Predict the 3D structure of the following.
Amino acid sequence: MQFLSYKSITDCQLRNLQLEIEASMKKLDMDVVGFTTDGEFNSLRTSGTKRPISIIEVIKNIAKGMKCKEITKYFTLDKEGNPLKSHPAVPPEDAKWCHDFMYDSDPPVTFHRACLILRRRLFPFHYDPYPWVKGRDETNVEVLKSLMAIYLHRAEVQNLRGLKEDPADFNSHLYQPELGGHTSGATVLKLLHNWHKAVDGRGLSEDQRSTYCEELKCWLLDDWVPWHREVKDYSQIDVNRPVKGICGLTREVIVGLVANLESRELRRIEYIQRNIKPEHPRSSSTDDVESFISLLHEILGLNFDLKQVFSELPKILNEFRKRTDKDLPFYY
């Protein structure tokens, strides 16, 4: 444990502290799973150690420092019909469209107007792009910088998607944590999220639920019994290794996960063997219990007795059935 006395701490200082803690944990053979912080340290939620982890970091406008004359060359064609200067973020066909729109229109339009329309074409038809400066007409410089910012952002998104190591898909996600093997926070969160869906969600097949549970169990066993994928014999477990610390978890958590994962799979196999309908995916789940209690309060009020419950039981059960019906295409 390391204590820092401070009146104010910057994102950079906290990031350096995180790296120091990670290095110390690795020296002690501890699994670095992830870190949590409150909302004050914004950069920890947008910037990773090697790449952005949030679309908000990618949005940073680096076009502000570009000169207008330089940007103009990207959208101006020479006699051969090529841009005076190329930029990897600006498609040549867009520069050609801008040129054709200026001179093929009747009457011809200005370069400023052509850039405004080009920017408009980069978004869905019903959307009016946000201006560089709100509340007045934009100057030629402002329109060019706004246009360039859009191209730079979209090019960076594609560059991040094409990274060989740890690519980030900001086309489909606003947030893409850095990955680092099975001990990375992103992988652990995904495994736990899928497990939660498997045991307390709806809309998944029994095979998919089984797969998600198996993936989480394999994550535990990769650290606990590294050879389990080749030799699945738990009698060979190293009994001298403490259960506490497996995957960085406490003994209580390991006990709970093992019981949950194995018992669910055993029940699934038993139901298949006995030709029994699969267990309701939300049976006895937290949501069901809380839903039933809240339903009692909704129908009977804050205070009620057993007689009132029996009196309204048909109505209560009918409403509860709707809320837990796995075949409904929506959450009731």
Residues 251-273 form the longest helix (23 residues). The chain has three domains: 61-162, 183-274, 286-324. Residues 53 and 230 are 35 Å apart (CA to CA). Residues 183-274 form one domain.
